[in-house]
Each structure stands twice: as C-alpha cells, then as structure tokens.
Design a protein that fits this description.
This protein has 13 helices and nine strands. By secondary structure, the chain is an alpha/beta fold.
C-alpha cells in the first residue's frame, strides 16, 4: 500500500466485516478496512495469501481488532455486518456466495453483501434476488481507479441496490473510496461500470493514434502532451498513461486480459439492450491483437503497440 499520500480515514464506528478475494484490488481494499479500525475476517482461494494479509495488517486496528482468516466464505461471513467481495467474474462470484460453503449461508439476517467484482448486470440481479429471498441485502458496487486507486484508498465506486443497504455500506466503504454513489436499482452499478469501460476503450485508442501520429510527424511528444493536456484534449488517460506510452512501458496497471473480459460484458449487454457500439467492438478486437502479440498482462495503454 502506498505511503506517499496516507489515507485519512473518516471516523466511523468499528464494524465486524468480511472481505472475500485478496487479489490486486481486494488485498489493499481489505487493508484499508483494517486500518480504519474495523474487525476484518478475510477469505482467499489461496490461503497462503490470506495468511500473508493477516500478518501484514496484524497491528492495524485497535485493541481486539486483530484480523483473521477463514477457510471458507461461509465462515468468513459469520457474524459480519458487512461482507465485501472482489473476485474475477460471474462464476467466481457465484462460487463465493452460493452453496453450503458460500457467504450467504453464513450471513446473519439483514447483513449486507457488497460486491466489487466487475461482473454482469444479470448476475447482480440474480444474487440480489437470492439474497432478498433469505433476508439478506446485496449491493453491486464495481470500482474504477485501478491498482493505484485501491492502494491509495481512492476508488470510485458505482452502486446498484436498495437505499437502506447502500446507506449501511457507504460509511464503511469510504475507507477505500473517494466516491461511493448509488446510481439505481440492482444492476445499475454494473451498467455504470460498463459505461466507464466504453469511455476508456475509446480514449485509449484515440490517445494511441495521436501519439503514433505525432511521433511519425517528428514531434517531441512529451512536450506536445504537456501542451495539449492544458486544453480540451486533457483526460486521465493522457495525464497518467501518455508519457509511459511514449516510453513503451506497459508492465503495470489494468491488464489487457481484464479489459477484454470487461468489454465482453459490455458487448453482451449491448446485444440485450440494443445499444450500438461500433467503436467499442473495434477496440475490443484491437485488444485481441495485443493479446496475440503476447500482451495479455500489459496495461490497457499497450494498444499503441499495434501502431508501431
């Protein structure tokens, strides 16, 4: 976790919470919950990673707040007021929520499950209904901000679900968020994340073409981006990825494999709702080209590699 800009935590009552999934995003997100003073129990498919997390954050909370790990999602969720989750896809999400060892089987009545996985809107609605049927609450809450946002506790979180469940989760989730916003009924959070990924896909392709064009024209592109970044072309992608794209650096950030998974969700949803996404579909195929070039784990800004 980053120490250059230490997170200042809002004063909130200590809660018993669980966190399922300690990947690139979940590991620091759970860490912020511990550092904010909450009693955190974690579950991870690879138990050694959960043990490492507990060791790292052993002294983060107050007295009697030592973090714990559990061998199943069900045991992690027992007695938790809030269960947070960040796993890979729809199937991973079902595996940690449903069944005899799933979190839903261990949660108390009225407890809230907050899912930060980027998944389909349909699975969000499915699990919202399953939770409601057994007296639980479910919020779909995908995030934007990448690994750096998770490490610095500055994620933007897009939520779908009921107001009461959102209100219960929001003060605690601000431990790792800069914004935590309810956008509508169940599924609205996932749909908003799809909007986010559509924007990013088009922006990164445009930036790739602009840099490749400028380099071919013989411009000093570092200086050029500094200039146009003060005008209407400014964007997060330009500010944070432009110079690394010029330098051909892609060993960081949001992986191409993850972006293709997200764009697959977008294009599937567009088939259902009738939206026309010609540029998004094209950029998805450009990312397939990058995968074939060996760039499955490169940052999404590696689109420019196709143009060199």
């Amino acid at each position: 976790m980053s120490s250059t800009n230490p997170k200042i935590y809002q004063a909130t009552p200590a809660r018993k919470v669980a966190f399922l999934g300690l990947g690139v995003m979940g590991y620091p997100m759970a860490g912020h919950l511990a550092q904010a003073g909450h009693q955190v129990t974690v579950y991870n498919r690879t138990s050694a990673k959960a043990a490492a997390w507990c060791a790292e954050f052993a002294h983060s909370g107050g007295q009697n707040m030592t973090p714990k790990q559990a061998p199943t999602p069900r045991l992690a969720a027992q007695h938790a007021e809030l269960v947070f989750c960040c796993v890979g896809n729809d199937d991973d999400l079902r595996s940690v929520t449903l069944g005899a060892d799933g979190a839903f089987a261990g949660m108390e009545p009225d407890a809230v499950f907050v899912d930060h996985t980027t998944a389909s809107a349909s699975v969000a609605r499915e699990l919202y209904g399953a939770a409601k049927n057994i007296g639980l609450k479910f919020v779909d809450a995908p995030v934007s901000g990448g690994q750096a946002g998770a490490q610095n506790g500055l994620l933007t979180v897009m939520c779908g679900g009921d107001q009461g469940a959102f209100d219960a989760a929001q003060p605690v989730a601000m431990a790792f968020s800069r914004a935590f916003t309810l956008l509508g009924a169940s599924g609205a959070g996932q749909l908003a994340k799809m909007v986010n990924q559509i924007c990013i896909a088009g922006l990164v392709q445009g930036l790739s073409e602009a840099i490749a064009f400028g380099q071919q024209a013989g411009l000093d592109m570092v200086q050029t981006l500094d200039v146009i970044g003060k005008g209407a072309a400014q964007s997060w992608q330009l500010d944070n990825r432009g110079k690394t794209m010029i330098a051909d650096q892609f060993d960081f950030g949001f992986a191409v494999d993850w972006m293709r998974k997200d764009l697959g969700l977008v294009l599937d949803e567009a088939k259902r709702n009738g939206a026309r996404l010609p540029v998004t579909a094209l950029v998805d195929q450009f990312y397939a080209d990058v995968q074939r070039m060996g760039g499955r784990r490169w940052d999404t800004s590696s689109l420019i590699k196709r143009l060199r």
